[in-house]
Design a protein that fits this description.
The complex is a heterodimer. By secondary structure, chain A is α+β, with helices and mostly antiparallel strands. Helix content of chain A is 53%, strand content 15%. Chain A contains ten helices and ten strands. In chain B, the strands form three sheets. Chain B has a nine-stranded mixed β-sheet with strand order 11-10-9-12-8-1-6-7-13, with helices on both faces. Chain B has a two-stranded antiparallel sheet with strand order 2-5. A two-stranded antiparallel ribbon of chain B has the order 3-4. Chains A and B meet through α1 of A and α2 and α5 of B.
């Protein structure tokens, strides 16, 4: 076994750390408070090739692998989970879907600008009545001449307000059941597509989320992604990739909670000694460090499986489940360690705790991950 | 079009140094990095090439594990690298490092300008640059915050305790740079991935004449410790007196 990242991966991690300390840390509090998408930051991410790490060079990417992308998302999320997530959705789901299922033309016209970071991608699946239960979706796509006509309402679309290319899932043949759903690439600004305003959320506030309403939204039939009827497979593929992304985001959150807890508990003096000398505190930190190690290994292993071309649904679900629950658990502890100082706006641990909660919910709740995992092991 | 050499050292990243139980330095889980000011030297070499063309060569002396540092350096702009390596090249003294570099540079790398960091992040002896220039018999300008190349001459702004000293030298010359000279880049993903595709010439101890002997011996290395006393004083008259008394006892006041 080899638990070591390559020298390149280690250097890339270091460079992302430096990038995040220089460009992300200084604005993280402000973009959270203002719920703002930092466009200026994304131009810098694009210039460094961070918006397309696993996409081949011929399609505008950096030509590395999924694990390297995951390591970068972790380091980015350690500074700002919202930014890490925006990159994760864009690369891990939207761009990967075009890479895996797109035509040569789609790769040239859609993937290239996405991988270069000039355009932002989004995964448009969730509906008011359908989340993990993809089959409960009601959005339809009807072929009319040379166009598909989309109708329906999507919600909780991450990168909705800021996206340029939307990967939209809709029924082309509801009667065909699991083989009746298809995916489409809908560019921003298409007539009939109304992008709602950005939701104000508890956490992950600078990641932009909105409703998307399709009213007789016509797109050329060439915009179908993959084959008609293959939507469900693509949705599941998107989830698998995305879950490893959430796992790396959660790992970054745990790392940040640990960093802050170590720093604060060594500084904070009560009863004549730093609180880190109290077993009640030091054991919390021990548990945090242990779960961080486990989180990282589960996440990297899932990404490695993907890079090896092996099925990784179960590994992705396990990594997502464990890391997100650990992130929630330990950010609560990190706030506890900080006491009153951790409850004040501007304290990093306060933001980490709010950001952590969503990791247990999106891209499949913890309960949905347990369904996937148990389905796999009881088979 | 000047040929520029940028020298760098692969050093312990001080952020990872811990203090051991008995006050010694615990280096068991350290990571390494390119010495801070050497990043400025590499960046300035890339800037010179940007302005005047030419070829940039990165040079380092170190242990075989410093190969990661060579990749790091190459991701920051140089066209190629010379990696002078041997397991014995750990903790070299500045005189030895300078002698080894001079040996390699003299016969193998054409140059008009050599850039070094003002001092290394670990020892900060500030000797390798001046010694290297002395051995090669070229002018040396230290503490430089700005350089301009005018034909075959170099104009450098040196920061001194008195102010800024503008000095000129004929090329070839050696310059040691301060961090103010530029802001080192953060390499992009592609820069890192392409680094190992660049040409690296590896030179071993066996390719070099006998090394100068070491002249110093490290007896021990201890951490600088900061112990908090946790004593509190208020602004009350008695406490102020007690505070002054405490400072006198610590030798802060006489």
């Amino acid at each position: 076994m080899d638990f070591k990242l390559s020298e390149e991966q280690e250097l890339i991690r270091k460079n992302m750390r430096e990038f995040a300390e220089k460009h992300v840390d200084p604005i993280a509090v402000e973009i959270d408070e203002e719920s703002r998408h930092p466009a200026e930051l994304f131009s810098k991410l694009a210039a460094g090739g961070w918006m397309g790490i696993p996409i081949p060079v011929e399609y505008g990417g950096s030509g590395s692998d999924y694990l390297t992308h995951i390591v970068a998302v972790e380091e980015l999320s350690r500074s700002c989970a919202s930014t890490g997530f925006t990159v994760s959705i864009h690369v891990g789901i939207a761009s990967m879907l075009v890479l895996l299922f797109g035509t040569e033309d789609q790769k040239k016209n859609v993937l290239v600008p996405m991988a270069k970071g000039e355009k932002l991608g989004a995964f448009v699946l969730t509906e008011p009545g359908a989340g993990t239960d993809v089959m409960a979706a009601t959005t339809t796509a009807v072929l009319d001449g040379n166009d598909y006509v989309l109708n329906g309402t999507k919600t909780f679309t991450s990168n909705g307000p800021t996206g340029d290319f939307y990967m939209v899932f809709a029924w082309t043949d509801k009667a065909a059941g699991r083989k009746g759903m298809s995916a489409f690439i809908v560019p921003r600004g298409t007539a009939g597509l109304e992008v709602g305003t950005h939701f104000k959320k508890m956490g992950l506030r600078s990641s932009q989320t909105s409703e998307m309403v399709f009213r007789d939204c016509r797109i050329p039939k060439e915009n179908i992604l993959g084959k008609e009827g293959a939507g469900l497979v693509m949705a599941m593929t998107g989830f698998d990739h995305g879950r490893v992304g959430i796992a790396s985001q959660s790992t970054g959150i745990i790392q940040a909670a640990l960093d802050e807890s170590i720093r604060y508990s060594k500084e904070r003096v009560q009863f004549g000694q730093p609180i880190s000398r109290n077993q009640a505190i030091s054991w919390m930190i021990a548990d945090m460090a242990t779960d961080l190690q486990a989180a990282r290994f589960l996440t990297y292993h899932a990404a490695w499986m993907k890079d090896q071309g092996k099925p990784f649904s179960k590994e992705a679900a396990m990594a997502k489940l464990f890391t997100s629950e650990a992130a929630m658990r330990h950010t609560i502890k990190a706030v506890q360690i900080h006491g009153g100082y951790g409850y004040v706006k501007g304290a990093k641990v306060e933001r980490l705790m709010r950001d952590a909660k969503i990791t247990e919910i999106y891209e499949g709740t913890s309960e949905a991950q347990r369904m996937v995992i148990s389905g796999n092991v009881l088979r | 079009m000047p040929n520029v050499i940028a020298c760098f050292k692969w050093v312990v990243d001080e952020a990872y140094v811990r203090s051991g139980a008995s006050g010694d330095l615990d280096l068991s889980s350290v990571d390494y990095k390119i010495s801070d000011y050497d990043k400025n030297a590499l960046e300035e070499a890339a800037a010179v090439r940007e302005r005047s063309g030419g070829v940039v060569t990165a040079v380092t002396v170190g242990v075989p594990e410093a190969g990661k540092g060579v990749k790091d350096a190459l991701s920051r702009g140089p066209d190629k690298a010379f990696f002078i390596r041997d397991p014995a090249f750990r903790d070299l003294e500045p005189s030895q490092t300078a002698a080894i570099m001079a040996e390699v540079i003299r016969d193998r790398i054409p140059f008009d300008l050599i850039l070094c960091g003002e001092g290394s992040s670990d020892l900060y002896a500030r000797q390798v640059g001046p010694r290297l220039a002395e051995i090669l018999g070229i002018p040396c300008l230290t503490g430089v915050q700005k350089i301009t190349i005018e034909g075959t001459r170099l104009v450098a702004e040196r920061r001194t305790e008195e102010g800024v000293d503008v000095a000129e030298a004929a090329l070839p010359a050696l310059v040691t740079v301060l961090p103010d000279i530029n802001t080192p880049r953060i390499p992009g993903v592609r820069d890192t991935l392409m680094a190992s595709k660049k040409e690296t010439t590896v030179i071993g101890k066996e390719d070099l004449p006998t090394l100068p002997r070491e002249t110093m011996k490290t007896l021990s290395m201890k951490t600088a410790s900061l112990k908090r006393q946790g004593v509190r004083f208020t602004a009350e008259r008695d406490d102020v007196a007690a505070f002054v008394d405490a400072l006198v006892r610590k030798g802060v006041l006489e």
